[in-house]
Design a protein that fits this description.
By secondary structure, the protein is an alpha/beta fold. Helix content is about 30%, strand content about 25%. The protein has three domains: about 15-30 and about 40-160 and about 170-210 and about 225-235, ANL, N-terminal domain (Rossmann fold, 3-Layer(aba) Sandwich), CATH 3.40.50; about 350-430, Roll (Luciferase, domain 3); about 430-535, 2-Layer Sandwich (GMP Synthetase, Chain A, domain 3). It is built from 16 helices and 25 strands. Belongs to the ATP-dependent AMP-binding enzyme family.
Length: about 525
Amino acid sequence: MNKAQRYRDAGHWPDQTLHFWLDENASRCPDRVAVKDAPNREAITGEAPIALTWSQLKKASLAFAAYMKSRGVQAGDRVLIQMPNVVDLVVVYYALSRLGAIISPIPVQYGHHEVDWVHSELKNVHVIVVGSMAGKPLAATSLSDRCAVTVMGKDWVIDPNVETDATVDDSSVTASNILTICWTSGTTGTPKGVPRDHNMWMAIGVSNVKVCDYRDGDILLNPFPLVNMAAVGGFLFPAVVCGATLVLHHPIDVPVYLQQLQQERCTFTIAPPALLNQLAAKPDMWNAFDFSALRNIGSGAAPLSPWMIDVFENQFGKPILNFYGSNEGISLYSIPSTTPDTEMRASCFYRPAADSCIVAEVADPESGELLTEVGAVGELLMGGPTVFNGYYNHDNQGVFSKEGLFRTGDLVEITGDDGRYLKIVGRCKEMINRGGFKLSPVELDLLLEKIDGVKEAAAFSIPDDTLGERVGAAIVLEDPAKPIDLEAISAYFESQGVAKFKTPEGVMIIEALPRNPVGKVQRFMLNEIYQAQNA
């Protein structure tokens, strides 16, 4: 029996599409609110906030699907999306799902540099954007000279009260069709596309329903961009499975976020560790609101603080759930029922049971030999119904182990009395993890070395209590008498249209880059030198 049939037999792959569940909810709970804008939408896109019931969401997505079809979009076409968390984006997901088109969402922070690269790889036939973000056009708008562009709010306006007789034949669209190609940075210095079909997403969604204790009619506040695993797998799919209300927030405006959490009577949300630390350190801020409807809070993307978990659970009465995931389909968690000890829950993740379809193994990074002893450290390997089949337009050499498991590139320690937990201790490769954005230092090296006066350069990570890591730059000057400062580097990155989160926030001038005997830059030494200089 092949693995796909095994996943179907186990119930992990129900062979149901995203829009199938939309139709179910439009019949089962038509008047329940399905999706709602943040109250500050006007400050984000210049348009008033809207909300759609499940019935209205179906009609709006059908009408938009018919419109996109009239513009030539058909099954299998790749459509690049650059939009903030607004109702229109959710309509786009459901509409393109019904057409069988492939949705490729990118962060609104992406500049021309990143957008041009993604377009060159994706060869998308269409782009969907909002008219502006805080009064400025998004970078993907510039692709209008290379492909068709639809501007939401201008070319197409979402009407909550639309009555449409539009029909779209979706009979050929199956759950095995690729629904999305999300993007992640690779060690080669270029983003990598991660294709995922409906079944893979549904496996993640159903898993999160169970782990987060989602219930029929829940109200979920999503403050993560709908471009990757955390939001699509953690909110969009669980919401449609439960017929829940999805309350959108464009990350992250703390006063607005807290206001929404209270006024919408949200039952679940997820928040970055830094915000949870801030709230735990200032109980008066938390106690100024009524969060009585909230059952659980999720977090992740950076290490959690055990003291923060203690405050939330013992003083606020709100359990904290710790998640570790990726676009490729890594899905580990640590929750009170699996990990009652808060010290362990802050840094360790519960290992899937041996009889589960989800597999988490640890292997020696060099030999590939599987490790089983408590205390052993190796590369995390993942497999199962949530995991993708390989990167888009990529040879996928070395991406999977000889057992067929995804090589995550993360170093983990087998821990706990019976080895039932995995602790993330580092990365096999030298990615910089800035607040959940994993940045390739190779890409940044190439940008730095294009700056006038730079002989050679290397990016490295700077530890940071809030974001986990920030970007540092080590510069070797062509002429020591002509120094280059952080302002000059920032100006250059901005001139190249590079996303701000990739811009170095620390710089040091050195005589030569430290290298190993075969000439590879030793980035860990750059980190040590920088910290010594700034102690």
